[in-house]
Amino acid sequence: MPTGIERAFPPKFVWGAATAAYQIEGAIDTDGRTPSIWDTFSHTPGRVRSDDNGDIACDHYNRYLEDVALMRDLGLDSYRFSLSWPRITPQVDANALGPVNQKGIDFYSRLVDALLDAGIDPVITLYHWDLPQALEDAGGWPSRTTAERFGEYAAVAAEHLGDRVATFVTLNEPWCSAYLGYASGVHAPGRTDPAAALAAVHHLNLAHGLAVQAIRQQAPTAKVGVTLNLASVRPQTLLDRDTAAARRVDGLQNRVFLDPMLDGHYPDDIIDETGSVTDWSFVRDGDLDAICQPLDTIGVNYYSPTVVRGYDGDGPREESDGHGDGAASAWPASDDIEFPRQPGPYTVMGWSIDPRGLTELLLRVHRQAPGVDLLVTENGAAFDDLVDGEGRVDDPMRVEYLSRHIAAVGDAIEAGAPVRGYFVWSLLDNFEWAYGYTKRFGIVYVDYASQRRVPKTSARWYSDLIARQVRRRG
Ligand code: PNW
After folding, report:
1. SUPFAM superfamilies from the entry (predicted)?
2. CB 3.0-4.6 Å disulfide test: which of 78, 151, 215, 277 passes with 158?
């Protein structure tokens, strides 16, 4: 999208950036916070690259005012961040939420006020993977009580912040929580049990539904949504075994969340095809009614396309789906499916770059949820960024990645998808989960030794793009 002929986005289109609590905050035992599953996981040797952890991260807990000032300088309309559940109700267990930690609420309250003062609209994600460890000890997401406690926690968050926060997102990428946490084990809590992963899928869905109801009650004017890492799944060829594989992956990645949330049922084909793993008896009467709540928005996170093929038993298996090198598969009941490596270019995650996948995905979600607004709640890329002799970080590949994906959002809007905003992942370089600090997704570079923030070329570019779009609004 060369700047000269840049298209106009809708006047109310929201330009933002996103982060998540465990990836940036640090201050893990400050003001009453208790451990989450990511504290435990990252402190277990061998789980995270270089045994990195989130103990300090970007020290955002202590530097949030500087970070808000940075966002104001960039001209962001909106900032998507997540709440750390173990800051809000640090004593939660399977039976009870426990007392609200006022100091935890106060931190987010100050952050929200600072954002509003800077003219930046806060979007709060209630859960971006940092489950209180005590709930994992009681069974974690495969256990129903986790969903029940999540509904209560959502009520607390909406009660204390819903007077100033216009948009709440219940869950971030339940696919990752369920399958990477409980099937491949490359994310916390690191379990490798496909039956547990499918039980986790259901209880994450239930948690979402209970949270939507709680937020509606506490903050009736707030907009409520969920963020899913959906995939636009393409079969490698039109052979039956490849189209069947694509249907299964679409089911396990997309429909197993979208169908219950939007239409109140689980996909029959997926229940059948996972029959060797689980009988789905964790789904109780009334659960689907609880899960299927009207939504104001669906958040789509997109990085890379998904191409699948049915394994025909010939030749070496291809397992380069970018879901980690764990020996266990993320995909329950799918030993017959593989993810052939796609042609480059790639980001340093090894994820192939294909903006058209974002257009396809937005249109696919719009077809299934025609009345629901869409947000791109994450999109971005990791590259090997370096500070040069002048103290600058020049990242032309990220500029190229972002501009082409933003153009792809424009294409989806032109084709009829009601996309209301776009959030770059991420505002800051941060703790990239199993990859530790080795992968930098930020438009702002973080020097972890000094905690100095250096806006990269991409930050300046994004800021200029926003300024041009704001001028067009008149
Ligand atoms: C998302 N996968 O994570 C998360 O929402 C962010 O917290 C994260 O930093 C960002 O994308 C970049 O990774 C994902 O293996 C992690 O497919 C892994 C996968 C997808 C998304």
Report:
1. (Trans)glycosidases
2. 215
Task: Please tell me which residue in 25, 273, 338, 378 is annotated as part of the active site.
Answer: 378
Q: How far is CA 460 from CA 129, 251, 453, in A?
A: 30, 40, 13
Helix (H) or strand (E) holding 64: helix 60-74
403 C-alpha to ligand 1 centroid (Å): 20
Feature table: binding site for substrate: 23, 128, 172, 303, 425, 432-433
Q: What spacing in Å lies between the alpha carbon of 427 and ligand 1's midpoint?
A: 14
273 is catalytic: no
The residues that bridge with 167 in the sheet, in sequence order, are 123, 223
The closest alpha carbon to 208, from 166, 161, 146, belongs to 146
Using the predicted structure, report yes or no on whether residue 323 has a pLDDT greater than 60. Answer: no
CA–CA separation, 465 and 97 (whole Å): 44
Residue position matching structure tokens 């298209």? 7
276 by Cβ neighbours in 10 Å (0-12 / 13-18 / 19+) ranks as exposed
Query: How far is it, in rounded angstroms, from Cα 459 to Cα 222?
Result: 30
429 lines ligand 1 (CB under 6 A): no
Would you state the pLDDT for residue 311? 85
Which of the following is catalytic: 25, 136, 173, 360? 173
Atom of ligand 1 nearest to the CA of 349: 13
Element (H, E) at 63: helix 60-74
Predicted local distance difference test score (pLDDT) of residue 312: 76
Is the ipTM higher than 0.95? The answer is yes
| CB-ligand 1 contact for 301 (6 Å cutoff) | yes
User: What is the whole-number distance in angstroms between the Cα of residue 453 and the centre of ligand 1?
Assistant: 22
- With a 6 A CB cut-off, is 222 part of the ligand 1 pocket? no
Q: Summarize pLDDT for 207-248 with one digit per residue, the tens.
A: 999 999 999 999 999 999 999 999 999 999 999 999 999 999
Identify the band that residue 168 occupies on the pLDDT scale cut at 50, 70 and 90: very high
Tell me how far the alpha carbon of residue 331 lies from the centroid of ligand 1, in angstroms: 16
120 DSSP 8-state letter: -
| Token couple for 89 | 């109700």
Helix or strand run (H / E) with residue 71: helix 60-74
SS (H, E, C) 336-396: CEEECCCCCCECCCCCECCCHHHHHHHHHHHHHCCCCEEEEEEECCCCCCCECCCCCECCH
Q: Which tokens go with 403?
A: 């501009």
Residues with Cβ within 8 Å of 367's Cβ and at least 6 positions away in sequence, in order, are none
The percent helix, strand, coil of the chain (3-state, each to 5) is 40, 15, 40
Q: Is 148 assigned a catalytic role?
A: no
Q: Provide the 3-class DSSP secondary structure of residue 454.
A: strand
